[in-house]
User: Fold these one by one.
Assistant:
Number 1:
Amino acid sequence: MHYQRRPSWALPEAAVTSEHLFLNRRKVLAGMGLGAGLLALPGRGRAEAGVSPLEAAMNPAYADAGRELTSEELSSTYNNFYEFGSSKRISQEAQRLDVNGWTIKIGGMVEEEFEIGFEDLMGRMQMEERIVRHRCVEAWSMVVPWTGFPLSELVKIAKPLSSAKYIKMQTFLDPDVATEQRAAWWPWPYTEGLTMDEAMNELSFMVTGAYGKELHKQFGAPMRLHTPWKYGFKSIKSIDRIEFTDERPLSFWEELADAEYGFWANVNPEVDHPRWSQAEELPLGAEEKIPTLLYNGYAEQVADMYGNLPEEVGERFWR
Ligand code: MTE
């Protein structure tokens, strides 16, 4: 992973708000007015009220990321998905990914191991939309409207044992589709993990759509994680295996370079990457860098998991 200061493709129309969000913001207002939310609207079905995998109700707590939305054109053509190549231009290659009949294996320290079809899982989830910030460890950032459901809801279905301390997630392994997986020097499959506390945090989100559409393959279809307070590499794509364990999982980047990309990876502008500063970031499409915020601005939701004050936390949670 490395950092490009000013990408040549950055377009001025990056700030345009998409029509679907404009419409969905109106739904947020309607939902807030009702108090009970959109599902309580009399005489309206779930789909009409905006609750479907494709068009979910906006979560009012995450209706505004406080920054301009990144255009779909930019965010979907500048991706990290090393299975399809180590450049940012993998969106075409990623179209080879076949998500039909996708299943997710759930195992390890659970009451009973099982495999669930992606469609079945969707049917059991209450979908919502959230607009959140994403901060890559390479010091670029974006703001994307994701559709999905809280990871905590999936954990409830998985029924982990109380002795499980971590959740480990893995991306598909198929070198015929993802040709970079033929390269043996990468520790495939891509693996990531969270503590159980982190997994149950309201910010941990399973993403199944973006910009009001089914999740783009390059974003990690059909389902990827998003943990907005952590550097982007924690947000593992195209998950097909979830395991509960009492051993801290070794993640893909940690295995490759543990001094640079550790397990915790909480965003902190005061702790530099060994090779560059983390004090600022360049939003995709922007001309100017902006200051990076502690926990990417989500301290209110997550800081108590780490002892609250950065001084108390010390070095340990930043890498
Ligand atoms: N997941 C998989 N399976 N493979 C990857 O290469 N890259 C990570 C993360 N998840 C990656 C992955 C990194 S470094 C980042 S910054 C984000 O995905 C990028 O997500 P985006 O392409 O949606 O912006």
Number 2:
Amino acid sequence: MTAEDLSSSSITYGLNTSFIGQKVIYRPRLLSTMDAARLEVRRGAAGGTVIIAGEQTGGRGRMRRAWLSPPGNIALSIILYPDIAGLPYLVMIASLAAAHGIERVTGLKTRLKWPNDILINGKKVCGILIENEVKANRVAYAIVGIGINVALKASDIPGISATATSLEDELDRSVLRPDIIRPLLTEFERLYLLLPAGESIYAAWRDRLEILGKRVEVRSGGDVLEGVAESADESGALVLRCADGNLTRVVAGDVTLRHQ
Ligand code: BTN
């Protein structure tokens, strides 16, 4: 087993969980762990199964954006079968768990950016993508995708150099991916097992959002809204105080800070 071994046994070795990561499927190269996870769902995968790719060649982000995940970064998906009431908390759990894994191993301070980014020094280091299928008010499955820039040389990549970073860019030393994945999975399970009581998950997530109280611009669908990010509610929606004083709930979009 090499130090950077991402194989199933390397991740599960010493992993202190009861179901998250008890089965890990590792593939050196995948188009996307989201598609591989969906295939595993069809094959009857147990809740908590984790799919990890050494690299992704067709990784995707929110809003059909591409997600770069060359070798050396973390790309994983977790298969879950939550109650429908648990769905809004998945992004909160994933954000908190990924932030925990990163901080625990690197000592770097992270902040959360609504709706599902993790930032270090104002730049994106991690993105989360949730895909699910709901049939007749029941969740058929949910797949939580987590991408962490570990070795990405974000500063060399046109288009993201101003807004993205990686753990190694921030630390100037190498980081072992299993060292981050294990605490991430452990914290993910700890938080997930708090459901259906999601209040403490919500409170921890909301308290780490970097934009609350700040003037922001939100792009949602074709609309551009401006206002003060007053809160994020328990469903995960952003509550924006617009210039006319009205409150607007925004369920999906991209936020940028305006000059205060
Ligand atoms: C975003 O910031 O828009 C979300 C990015 C999510 C990337 C992860 S990497 C693992 C999983 N597989 C994918 O193709 N996407 C997610």
